[in-house]
Amino acid sequence: MTITKTLKPISIALAVIYANGAYAQTSNLLDDASLTLGTVVVSGESGPISTRSLPTSVDILGAEKIQNQVVTNNWQLFGQMPGIMLTQFNQGNVSGKFSLRGFNGEGEINAVKLLIDGIPSNSNDGNMPYLELTNPLDIEAIEVVRGTNDPRYGLHNIAGNADVITRIGGNYQTARASYGSFDTRNVQYAAGFDNGLFSQNYTASYLDSTGYRDHSDTQRSSFAGKWFFTPESGNARFGFIARHHKADAEEAGYLTYAQSRDDDRQSPAHNAFDQGDRELNQFSAHMDIDLNDELYWETKAYLNQIEDRRYVRFSENVSQQERYTKENHVGALSTLTWRPEVDWANEFALMGGVSAEFQDNRSDRYLTTNRTRQSQTRDQQFDLDIYGAFVQAVVKPTANLKLVPAYRVESLHGSYTNELTNERFDINDYGLIHQPKFSAVYSFTDNYAAYANWGKTFQVGVGTGTYRVDNDRDLDPSINEGYEIGFKFRPVSWLDGRVAIWQQTATNEARRVLNDPNNSSENIGKTERQGIDLQFNAQATDQLALWFAASLQRSEILKAESGSPESKGQEIDHVPNYLLNAGVDYQATQKLGLSFWTSAQDSYYLERTNSTREFGQFFLMNASASYAVTPKVRLELQLKNLANRYYEYVWFDGDQTLHSPGDGRAVYGSVQVDF
Q1: Phi and psi (nearest 5°) for 15?
Q2: 3-class SS at 442?
Q3: Are 610 and 570 in contact (CB under 8 A)?
Q4: What phi and psi, each to the nearest 5 degrees, are found at residue 542?
Q5: 424, 426, 428, 429: CA torsion to nearest 10
Q6: Cα–Cα distance measured from residue 376 to residue 364, given in angstroms and rounded to the nearest whole number
Q7: Which terminus of the chain has fewer CB atoms gathered within 10 Å of its CB, N or C?
Q8: What is the rounded CA–CA span in Å between residue 357 and residue 384?
Q9: Can you give the residue range of the structural domain that contains 600?
C-alpha cells in the first residue's frame, strides 16, 4: 500500500468527499449500515477498520451542511442529524448538549463518547465543553455511531459516540463573517498550506452576541493549529494539533411558568450577578505508520485541560452558587490493524487496541451573594485512571455475508479526597469490565442489505459516586445491553435509506444527583430504552435533494430502586417519544441555492414518577438562501425559527417548574470569501 501525501483526518483508510449525490463504493454490494447527508467516497481497503464499516446506525454529516451554519454553540450543529435530541439550557457557557438513544441531556447520565479528530474529548462527568474547540468553517465531517457494538471506546460510550473531524492538509484560505439578530457577530478564518511533505492548517474564530434574552451577553474566541509531516517514502504521517478556547457569558436564569408566559425575554432580578468564564485547551500528537502491505499502526496521545468558573442562582428561593472546575486529562490510544491475504474468506481484517487516560480533577463550590463568597460547600480532588483494550475482526466468509465480532475490557483506578474533612476514599473495585459485541450484515444485492448487532457497554457513578464514600461494599458497574436489527436500502441510484428497531437495557443504572454539594450519584434501578428509526436521503433531480428522519422511542424504569418505588413502570424524565428532522435543498440556478428544514420533538415528563405536566414539545422551521457572486465570493441569508414559535427547556426543582425559553425568530446574513 502507498499512502498519498494529502492525507485526510478521518484516517488513511477513509477519505471523504461531501456533495449531494449517490454513494461511490469499492464494491457493488451494499454491505454497511451507514448513511450520509452528501456522498461518501471510500478509498483503499487498508488501514484501521473504519467507522462506516460497522453494521450499526452510522450517520455522517458533510461539510456543506456544517460550514454554512450560523450557530452560537457547536452542539447545535447536531440538530441536523437523525435520532439526536438537543437539550437547550440557554444558560451562558452551560448552553446545552446533544444526546441519543433515549438518554436525556440533563447531565445525570452522559451517554455519548465525544471525540475531536479521534481524540477523547469528554470532561470527567461526560459532558462536552470541548466541542467549542472547533469552528464550523474548519469541520470536514461529523460521524455519529449509535448503539452498543462499537468496541473502540469505553467510558461514556454507553449509547454511542460522535467524532468531529476537521480539515488536515490541503491548500486553501477561507474567511466568513456573519451578522444578525440579537446583535450577533461572528468571524471565522480557516487556512491550509500543504507542499506534499509538510502541511499546516490554522483556524480562528470570534463570536459576540447579546442573546435573545436580557442579561445573556456572550463572547467566545478560539484558535487551532495543525502541523503534519509525511516522509518521502509516503508510508507514515506524524502530526501535532493545538487548540484553545475562551468564553465569557452572562446567564439569563430560569423563569417561573407565569414569567415565561408573560415575557419570555426577561431575566429575573435575582440573576443579575449570574455569569461564567471558561478556558479550554487540547494538545494532541498523532502517528500513523504503514508497517507493510498488511500491517497498519495508529497512535495518538493527548492532553485536555478545562478551567471553568460559574456563578448561578437557579431560583429566587435559593442562594447563588460559585462553581469551580479544573481538570487535566492525559491519555493515549494505539491500534494495530492486520489485513492479510487469506484463501478461506473473501475478506479478513483484525484490529486490536489499547487506551489509557489519567485524570486529575478538582471541583469546588461556594454559597455566594452577588458573587461574594459566604461559605464553602465543596472542596474535592479526585483522580481517575482508565485502562482499556479491545479486539475486533471483520470476516466475510462469502461475498454476501460480513461478520464483525469484538470484545473490550476496561479497568478503573483512582481515589477521592474530601478536602473539607480531610477524608480519602478509594474507587469502587469494579474489577475487569467485560464488553462483548457481535454484528453481522447480509447483502442481498447492491441495493438491499439486512444487518443486526448486539453488544454491552458500561456506566459507573459520576463524581464522588465512582468512589466508596457511603457504601460498605464495592458497587458493580451498570451494564447496558443493547441490540439493533435494521434494513438498508438503495432501490435506485438517487435514493437510499435505513429502517431499524433497537433496544437497550441497563442494570442498576446510576445517575448524577444534580445540585448536590457532595457531587454524588444515586441508583435509578433497571431501565429499558427502545425505539424505531426511519431515515432516507433522496437526490430527486440534479437540482433537488430531500431528507427525512424519524425516531420513535420509549424509555421505562422496569425495576425501581427502593427509595422511589413509585417510579416503577414510569418513563425516564426528559425523554420525548419522537424526534423528527426533514429538509429540502434546491439549486434554483447555477448561482442561487435554497434550503428549508424542520425539526420537531414530543413533550417529556420532568421527573421519574411522571407526576408533573409534560413540557418540551416543539416544531421549528428554518430556511436559507445562498448566492455565488463570483466563484470565490458567496452571500448567504439564514432564517431560524421562521414562524417565531415559542419553545423551551423545562425542569422541576421539587417545588416548581423552571423554564428557559428558546430563541425567537432570527435572521443572519453572511459573506464567505475564498482567497
Answers
A1: -110, 135
A2: strand
A3: yes
A4: -60, -25
A5: -160
A6: 8
A7: C
A8: 8
A9: 34-674
Q: What is the mean pLDDT of residues 296-316?
A: 98
Residue 317: count other Cβ atoms within 10 Å of its Cβ. 10
The H or E element that residue 259 is part of is helix 257-262
Segments in 531-665 forming alpha helices (H): none
The strand pair at 112-116 and 160-166 is best described as parallel
Q: Do the domain assignments include residue 401?
A: yes
CA angle 152, 156, 159 (to 5 degrees): 80
Pairing label, strands 34-37, 57-62: parallel
State how far the Cα of 166 lies from the Cα of 552, in Å rounded to an integer.
31
Q: How many CA atoms lie within 13 A of 498 on its CB side?
A: 29
Res. 2 pLDDT band, cuts 50 70 90? very low
CA distance 391 to 396: 17
How far apart CA 502 and CA 509 sit, in angstroms, is 19
H runs (alpha helix) in 53-163: none
* Three-state DSSP string of 212-242: CCCCCCEEEEEEEEEEEECCCCCCEEEEEEE
Written as nine digits, the cell of 297 is 499502526
Q: How far is it, in rounded angstroms, from Cα 527 to Cα 567?
A: 11
Q: Specify if 304 maps to a domain.
A: yes
Please tell me the distance from the alpha carbon of residue 55 to that of residue 133, in angstroms, as a whole number.
30
Q: Per the structure block, which three cell numbers stand in for 440?
A: 453481522
Sign of the torsion formed by the C-alpha atoms of 125, 129, 133 and 135 = positive
List the one residue out of 186, 24, 68 whose CA is nearest residue 585. 68
621-641 mean pLDDT: 98
Contact 642, 623 (CB under 8 A): yes
The dihedrals phi and psi of 619, each to the nearest 5 degrees, come to -145, 110
Domain count, the chain: 1
Amino acid (1-letter code) at residue 519: N
Q: Which phi and psi (to 5°) does residue 352 adopt?
A: -125, 150
- The set of cell numbers assigned to 639 is 432564517
Summarize pLDDT for 585-622 with one digit per residue, the tens: 999 999 999 999 999 999 999 999 999 999 999 999 99
Q: Alpha carbon of 352 to those of 112, 407, 456, 554: distances in Å?
A: 22, 10, 18, 35
Residue 486: CB partners within 8 Å, gap ≥ 6?
33, 57, 450, 451, 452, 498, 499, 500, 501, 533
| CB count in 10 Å sphere of residue 256 | 15
CA distances from 415 to 385, 464, 585 (A): 9, 9, 53
Report the SS3 class of residue 131: helix
CA distance 215 to 553: 36
Which has the closest alpha carbon to 437: 649, 152, 126, 629? 152
Distance CA 672, CA 412 (A): 47
Summarised one tens digit per residue, pLDDT across range 332-390 is 999 999 999 999 999 999 999 999 999 999 999 999 999 999 999 999 999 999 999 99
- The total number of residues shown for the chain amounts to 675
Is 5 inside any structural domain? no
Reading across the β-sheet that carries 34-37, which strands appear in turn?
34-37, 57-62, 139-146, 160-166, 112-116, 119-120
Task: Find all residues with CB under 8 Å of 559, minimum gap 6, and list them.
Answer: 525, 526, 568
Query: If you average pLDDT over residues 545-561, what whole number do you get?
Result: 95
| CATH number of the CATH domain containing 563 | 2.40.170.20
Is the pTM for the entire model greater than 0.85? Answer: yes
Name residue 26's amino acid.
T
Looking at residue 49, its amino acid is I
Decide if 4 is inside a domain: no
Question: For residue 54, which of 460, 599, 441 has the smallest C-alpha distance?
Answer: 441
Cα atoms found within 13 Å of the Cα of residue 485, Cβ hemisphere only: 1
The tens digit of pLDDT for each residue in 28-75 reads 688 888 998 855 445 455 678 888 888 899 999 999 999 999 999 999
